[in-house]
Amino acid sequence: MELLRVSTKSDPKAVAGAIAGMIRQYGKVELQAIGAGAVNQAVKSIIVARGYVAPNGMNLVMTPAFQELDIDGSTRTAIRFKVTVR
Fold it and tell me: Which of 20, 26, 31, 84 is most exposed by smallest CB count within 10 Å?
């Protein structure tokens, strides 16, 4: 499954375009966000992407989950969003 990393500075429309492209190509995509700002940008991106693929008869479904990561020797908790077509 493809993984997109989303940060606080990510442009939701650009990420939404990447989500829509991967959904059209693979049928699924996964986003990873660390921190409240990044989670906010990821959720906005998924909402915008849903509008991009809706005219093609696709309905996006998001499943969130926690993921423990080791970054520079410290453990961080990320949120992963699995996005699929229903």
Answer: 26
Direct distance between the N- and C-terminal alpha carbons of the chain, in angstroms, rounded to an integer: 17
* Beta strand spans in 12-59 (E): 28-33
- Whether residue 17 contacts residue 52, with contact meaning beta carbons closer than 8 Å, is answered with yes
81: nearest Cα among 66, 69, 68, 63 = 63
Residue 30 corresponds to which tokens in the numbers above? 């996964």
Q: What is the pLDDT of residues 28-83, one digit of tens each?
A: 999 999 999 999 999 999 999 999 999 999 999 999 999 999 888 899 999 999 99
**Contact status, residue 38 vs residue 9, Cβ threshold 8 Å:** no
CB atoms near residue 30 (< 10 Å): 19
